[in-house]
């Protein structure tokens, strides 16, 4: 039974993360649409609101709840995992990811009310936080070490910095 629940857990982690990644991408487009002239701005905003709402309530939120239910079920069936230090760190990251989820939900509600507090650049950086959390959680689960996951996350952060610098340098030279 444990492995069936594990399979469900993994499948819905993929669905949840896909929903979070795409949701923030929609937030970026939704925010950028505010710079468009009318009637484009209104038409695009209405369309993004529909897309965000469907993605959130049909895929992202239900996936999160299934992930949590499956995770709790696995811990109930195998309580020894709770004695492992890496599991404590993983659960802390999962808690941060859940907070991230609800911050995104709040952003969606703000945008629906015409409140755009973050720029598209800030939203792009926000999207990277979910990536870092995903990397940390996966490395923790695979390595089952409360320390070794750090190397993987440091590596991805380093790669991200190099890529962002490369994009900025390219953008600078292209502008000339």
Give the secondary structure arrangement, pairings included.
Blueprint: H1 2-33, H2 40-77, H3 85-112, H4 120-143, H5 149-175
Describe the fold and architecture.
It contains five helices and no strands. The model has no long low-confidence stretch (mean pLDDT 91). The chain is mostly helical and 176 residues long. It is flat, with a radius of gyration of 19 Å. Helix 3 runs antiparallel to helix 4. The N and C termini lie far apart (61 Å). 85% of the residues lie in helices and 0% in strands.
Give a short summary of the structure.
The chain is an all-alpha fold. Helices cover 85% and strands 0% of the residues.
Radius of gyration: 19 Å
Q: Give the amount of beta strand, in percent.
A: under 5%
Low-confidence stretches: none
Helix share of residues?
Answer: over 70%
**Strand element count:** 0
- Structural category: mainly alpha
Encode the helix/strand succession as letters: HHHHH
Write down the overall mean pLDDT.
91
Describe the main β-sheet briefly: none
Q: Which term fits the overall shape?
A: flat
Total helical elements: 5
Alpha-carbon distance between the two ends? 61 Å
Notable characteristics:
176 residues, mainly alpha, 5 helices, 85% helix, 0% strand
